[in-house]
Predict the 3D structure of the following.
Amino acid sequence: MVSGLAGGNYICLVDVFITGTAYDRATSEKERIRYVLEAGYAGTENAAKTLLALGRNVGAHFGLLDDKHLPTPLFDQFYRDFSVDS
């Protein structure tokens, strides 16, 4: 679990987790958006696109996602015991 972070920072890191998972599971933008919507992480297509864009940018900045937006070894280490259901 991510601890010791202010609320906004926590949300960005959750978005990175959701984005990395979406890119790991789905190969097309449409499939990734559908994953985000069906999982209940966003309520509209535009919200899903925004979540994924934020996740890509923050994930790349911190080295959690690679240049194809897939999880890096650091992603796996950082989110090892993480769950969005917690």
Observations:
- The helical segments are 7-25, 29-38, 45-61, 73-78.
